[in-house]
Amino acid sequence: MTLPPLLTDPLSALVVWQLVAPVTALASIGLPSLLGRPLSERATTRIVAAAFATGFVAALVTLVVIANRGFAAHVVHLGRLFAVGHHAATIELVADGLSVPYVCFSTGLCALVNAFAGKYLHREPGFTRFFILLALFGTGMNLMVLAGSIDVLFAGWEFLGISSALLIGFFHERRNAVDAALRAFTTYRICDVGLFAASVVIHQATGSGDFERLFTGTWPHAACLVPPATALFVSMLLVFAALGKSAQVPFSGWLPRAMEGPTPSSAIFYGALSIHAGAYVLLRCESVLDAAPAAGWLLVAIGAGTALHAAVVGSVQTDLKSMLVYASMTQAGLILAEIGVGWRVIPLVHVISHAILRSLQILRSPSAMHDRHELAAALGGHPGPSDWSLLRLLPPRVARGLYHVALERGFEESFVSGLFVRPLLALLTSADRLERRWAALLGGGSADARARRSSDGGVV
What residues contact residue 329 under an 8 Å CB cut-off, 6+ apart? Predict the structure, then answer.
């Protein structure tokens, strides 16, 4: 009898454990809560901490092993979703020079946020719910990063989206939090169409969603296996998908509103990991981007434009979390521009260093505000702005114009609302009105009469 590969290959077992660890934490704290007997705060945080710690150790050992092998990709086959003729969708995980370092720092940051949130959310009514969503996020993150096919990557991508939206609306008793969650979820849904369409195109072009049929070689020197026209189409769709998760113009309006969630989730999502999910997908498919230079230059234009937009708007923010979120948007734009230029290792290093720095800044923001107030009290008033500013080099008229643009957040929301949102709402309202009239006509009466009968308590 032949043993399963996971029992005969220790490296495959290590790769799989990086995914199983957060899934185990999710089941361990989620099932008791579902049965109405949630675990204690201490047990919850310890289970999640153990899951992320063991996942981190497994990723670190895997990194050492594949580094000794020249960072050659190690693929783990876990089965098939379906197979029809020559077409198949498989479940594969891949450990290489891109995925394993990413898992190391993502699981490490999740463990750090878990330790912080255990004290930050002490006695919060939604304590268990937060850690369930954190475990779901960790599962989605590792699933997306270790994905060896576009199908597995899409599943992890969706886990990120749903956990992100639910954590933005964590304090659901506040209307602003619910509205912000809906705004983020809507943006995700629109841009996720790009990733879904890219998966359809990849399946049509290669007969499978496996990355090994899309490109070959060791990252970051892989070679694209599809024709240039297909590569350009797939690249454009992937760029569109990345714009939503990375909050790039014109889809950046949801990111400042995401600060309605708890500080720990803001740190792990919008300062560290979720905002860089789009960059990871583009780095994973770097050879496809290399085969489509037009998509790369479009990415440079959007990334650089977003970085400039966020730098200008962030300069007039009056609260610390908004300043940090616009700083994150600036760096995300620069990272995408680096990818568009053709760099590969530099954006990966940029992602990891920025994620670590920004998450720590957001986690410390409440303490920083407290320290600021104590400093002001000791000085007898606000210390005031710095003596030097770049705006002093600009003519006063130009400086006033930039200030006005920054206060209006670059007029991005009014532009998107006037060009897309209002026409779409008008179209949907007209379609709804037409549907009601058609239904009333088929039912034998006018829509107004049916509405009056319904309000009077009659049967419609």
Answer: 247, 248, 252, 255, 275, 306, 307, 309, 310, 314
